[in-house]
Amino acid sequence: MDAAERRIVGFTAGSHGLVHTYELSIPILLTVWVGEFSTTAAALGVIVTLGYGLFGVGALPGGILVDRFGSKPLILACLAGMAGSFLAVSLAPTLPVLAVAVAIWGLTASVYHPAGLSLLSTSVDQRGTALGYHGIGGNLGIALGPLATALLLLAFDWRLVTAALALPAVAVAAYGVTVDVDVALSSADPEPGASAADGGPNGDSTGGASGEVSLSSVATDTRILIAGGFLLVFAFVTFSGLYYRTFLTFLPDLLGDVLGGLVDLQLVDPESPYADQFDAGRYLYVAVLTVGVFGQFLGGRIADRVPPERGLMALMGILSALALLFIPATGTIATFVAVSLALGVALFTVQPLSQATVAAYSPSEARGLSFGYTYVGIFGIGALGSTLAGTILTRAGPSELFVVLAIIAALGAVSATAVSRFATRRD
User: Which domains can be identified in the chain, with CATH numbers?
Assistant: First the structure.
């Protein structure tokens, strides 16, 4: 990559990490909010569902806005909105105000994935590698963000912690203002409407604004996507999102149940209200998310060397096999840790390959829209994986849960095969 491309990757990777830092710091803060606002877990659950729901469904209108205004302005708006929402959280005097602040976070964060991925897929020649580094940023936010939040809560009041969490978004936004996306756009595959001479249809530094977007143009672009077989890509990303949420939602508790009686690790006083964040299962959970960094890097490299949809066929088969091995592996710590970490690597290897597949099977003028649909599938429909996992664990058990995960992964492999055979590549 040249210097301009590296700056874009750094900007988007940092933004991606912050999106997931905020996303996963909210569950850590719930333990404080129950007492602070004298409320119930059920009431807070409704608030969190509102924020996460907007985070998922907002991706589609976010994708439309990307095709209208370009990627960079939307990413900057996302960062500003997330910083403002967490500042509002720190000042929230009542539960309804807290709910509004969390909803603002979900709405502003929802535009990030279509904006960031559209920018990377159209402005960096080594698309797979760039998506891999972008995924590494996200994984670092997923793994280290909630841990940092919990550690800060041990030393500082939660209002000060949430206000401090707004500062990294301000810093990344300030850096993003200095990133010239038009230099990269002129040397790569331009975003819709961008020109090598002026960087955009009107000479604006927008990161590829494409002009007017109306309901009819969205409908036209949607028909073009469907005609090329994008529904098959959408089916794959939905299965991928279901696997992701079903696997990760209750994973800390599952890991803790297995390791709790075998390993005694205590970082804080057992009487601390945050003690449950630091049991043995949490350590392994962070490790599973952290090794996903290697998966992201591996997936990016694979995407630059083979058709990404073929890589997905193999990886979903691996995820299916690992799901079936999870329960038998609980016999010893060594096998259990090995399978858990292998699942972490394989799960996150899928992501850059999946994103590269979306880019390959969507026209550049509808790239934002295509990623909007993609993240409705991953985070919107995929959110049902939390309900699925909870229902199976309540009515059956972990063994049945991992059989269902194996089936979901197998269906993902089938849909990736269908993409390879029946969909039409656009780049």
Answer: 1-186 (1.20.1250.20), 213-426 (1.20.1250.20)
